[in-house]
Amino acid sequence: MATEEHTPETSHGVDVSSHLEFIDWMASNPEDAEVTFSETGTSEEVINRTTATISEWELGGERMGADREHTLRFGLPPEIEEAMGYTELDDRLEAIECALAALTACINGTIGYNALREGIAFDDIRTTVSVPVDLRVLFGIHDVDRADDMYGDIHLGVEVTAPELSAGEIKQLSTYPARSPVYNLLTRGQTDTVEMTVSAS
Fold first, then answer.
1. What is the pTM of this model?
2. How many other CB atoms are found less than 10 A from the CB of residue 115?
3. Which CATH number fits domain 13-93: 3.30.300.20, 3.90.950.10, 3.40.50.1000, 3.40.50.10800?
């Protein structure tokens, strides 16, 4: 596969001038730039299996994407299903796994967008995330007032491959994950610890 050629005009598949114009438009028109995403999940016959559909979304109150249709099939890994007494096993995406995957994607995009905005060159971004989960509230062993104890600390690691960067640029990169919309949706500011590693390309 050919390596993308970066020029002053384009970077990582983005026209830099058009991208910066979009940011300026967003800054000047915050109401028109507000994005609303939605999703519908329909339960299946087997408990905890759901088919979720992603389609339309809104920009500034205007509905878009009527022709979009992405389907996700949620459930459990088969080993958990077997332990829980399922009679016909299936290997599905687990909802927490998908939330964590969405977090990695959003952090990667957030770092890329802000590095582009600030003129910081980079090659690759790899984000890993994990979190321990106590499911006793889910299964009625603990009362709902223990819900805050359900999750342990989120472990978040980011590896950036980039040309030689200054100490200031590395510090700047380390602030970007906190700008991620999914990061803020999931953590609500509960963690500000990100292990940032920058490797020379």
1. 0.87
2. 22
3. 3.30.300.20
Residue 77 CA to residue 44 CA, distance in Å, equals 16
Percent of the chain with pLDDT over 90: 82
Cα 171 to its chain centre, rounded Å, is 22
Token code pair at residue 17? 């001038």
Separation in Å, CA 118 to CA 42, 47, 69, 107, 179: 42, 48, 34, 16, 14
- Pairing state of beta strands 195-200 and 155-162? parallel
User: 8: helix, coil or strand?
Assistant: coil
Amino acid at 67: D
- Same topology between domain 13-93 and domain 94-201: yes
CA distance 65 to 67: 5
Cα-based angle 148, 180, 150 (whole degrees, multiple of 5) = 15
pLDDT the model gives residue 106: 98
CATH class of the domain whose range is 94-201: alpha beta
- Give domain limits for the chain: 13-93, 94-201
Q: Which residue has the tokens 């995406």?
A: 93
Dist. CA 26–CA 177, nearest whole Å: 20
pLDDT score recorded for residue 187: 80
CA atoms within 13 A on the CB side of 123: 11
Residue 1 predicted with pLDDT over 50: no
Taking all residues of the chain, what is their mean pLDDT, rounded to a whole number?
91
